[in-house]
Specification:
globular; alpha/beta; two-stranded antiparallel sheet; 21% strand; single chain; 26% helix; Rossmann fold; 193 residues
Length: 193
Amino acid sequence: MTQPTAIAHTSMTDAPQSRHDLRKILLQKRRNLDASLKQQWDAELGQKLQAYCAHHQITSLGVYWPIKGEPDLRDAYGTLAAAGMQLALPLIETRQQPLVFLDWKPGDPMLDDEYGIPVPAQRSVTILPAALIIPCVGFNAQNFRLGYGGGYYDRTLEKLPRPLTLGIAYQCTLADFAAGEHDIAMDDILIAG
């Protein structure tokens, strides 16, 4: 398991007192990243993702479409798809329910979902990926992820069989926070920065 290194980070004792406040601070940190530095870190994360998938012999992967300054790994998606990996993008089919993963490869027709996030235009071919990459608004030293607060990934990971989970994060979003009652730790977290 890849353990995050403990360096200067946001602490709940000297900063926000709620997940909502912490989320706002971490999202602002992400928005403030220098564009060229972010591009460099995204390329580093893409390389780490490819190496991780090769090492763990992952054949199907649930990916994400980057929003709100999330690491953009779309170049890596193209490389993985060209190597024969089956990819899927998440869809919120019903509120308060687990995500559905739609079969997808770069270049497939896309439509925006009700949140304005691009998803595959086809809605009939779903898969259960062996592994998921999950963007982190923040993460802690115990591999718990702070997301946007909707709980969709946690509900998805409650279902069995549970896929391998790989958080994707920038080092500057390492934070001290306690895991919530329904939070599920990531198996690993890939970090750049």
